[in-house]
Amino acid sequence: SQQGEEDPQALSIQEGENATMNCSYKTSINNLQWYRQNSGRGLVHLILIRSNEREKHSGRLRVTLDTSKKSSSLLITASRAADTASYFCATVGSNDYKLSFGAGTTVTVRA
Amino acid sequence: EPEVTQTPSHQVTQMGQEVILRCVPISNHLYFYWYRQILGQKVEFLVSFYNNEISEKSEIFDDQFSVERPDGSNFTLKIRSTKLEDSAMYFCASSVETGVGEQYFGPGTRLTVT
């Protein structure tokens, strides 16, 4: 299976702290994407990192990709209560065009 | 900002009934997708659609499912004879380029089969 797997499953942090979650996948990819889902809502695209990239930033988000280890991490710096959500990594394989999602990390930011 | 819309937001149907879930992708997007998320589980790919034909489908997307772009704006998912296990949140997505680019998701339709 191509699917990414996130770690940890759940994370609880204090507002202002950083949140780090990891994603591992099994086969070669074209790119890896991170999405956020607020409870019962749709998926919001956060950031895309291509297989030839190692690090990418977007605002308070930092994503790394290590294709040799088939893993990625998402760092949210200076977290806010509004960051409370589930975060999913999704991979796009080298030979297909669909997103394969992991099970997600549920992040709770305490005020 | 353009967004993907889906209707209805919640659909309740009896087992064996046909349902049609509707989506309006972002207007300049060319690639369309359906995903589903059973409560508490992963988001799963169902089908991708480009140039009025299916470009890829998963094992879930069996003969009970079909997709259509009946006009220039709507993209529909039909389930011919619903089963209890079809109960899930169904998400439509669209993208400018193939799945190698970012996909924009709609808010979802919660389908409840009783």
Strand content of chain A: over 45%
Distance between the termini of chain A: 38 Å
* SS strand fraction of chain B: over 45%
CATH superfamily of chain A: Immunoglobulins
**CATH homologous superfamily name of chain B?**
Immunoglobulins
Mass-distribution shape of chain B: globular
**CATH topology (fold) name of chain B:** Immunoglobulin-like
According to CATH, what is the class of chain A? Answer: Mainly Beta
Number of helices of chain B: 0
Estimated helix fraction of chain B = under 10%
- Largest sheet composition of chain B: 7 strands, mixed
Please report the first level of CATH classification, the CATH class of chain B.
Mainly Beta
The amount of helix of chain A comes to under 10%
Calculate Rg of chain A over CA atoms: 13 Å
Dominant shape of chain A: globular
Work out the count of structural domains of chain B. 1
H/E series of chain A: EEEEEEEEEEE
Average pLDDT, all residues of chain B: 93
Can you give me a brief rundown of this structure?
The complex is a heterodimer of chains A (111) and B (114). Chain A is an all-beta fold and 111 residues long.
Written account of the structure:
- The complex is a heterodimer of chains A (111) and B (114).
- Chain A is mainly β and 111 residues long.
- Chain A has one domain (5-110): Immunoglobulins (Immunoglobulin-like, Sandwich), CATH 2.60.40.
- Chain A contains no helices and eleven strands.
- Chain A has strands spanning 5-7, 10-14, 19-24, 29-37, 43-50, 55-58, 61-66, 71-76, 85-93, 100-101, 105-110.
- In chain A, strands 2, 4, 5, 9, 10 and 11 form a six-stranded mixed β-sheet that branches.
- The model of chain A has no long low-confidence stretch (mean pLDDT 92).
- With 114 residues, chain B is mainly beta.
- Chain B has a single domain, classed as Sandwich (Immunoglobulin-like), CATH 2.60.40.
- Chain B has strands spanning 5-7, 10-13, 19-24, 31-37, 43-50, 53-57, 65-68, 75-79, 88-95, 104-105, 109-113.
- In chain B, strands 2, 4, 5, 6, 9, 10 and 11 form a seven-stranded mixed β-sheet that branches. In chain B, strands 1-3-8-7 form a four-stranded antiparallel β-sheet, with no helix packed on it.
- Chain B is globular and about 35 Å long.
- The mean pLDDT of chain B is 93.
- The A-B interface holds A 3, 30-31, 33, 35, 41-45, 48, 88, 90, 92, 96-104 and B 31, 33, 35, 41-45, 48, 55-56, 58, 91, 93, 98-108.
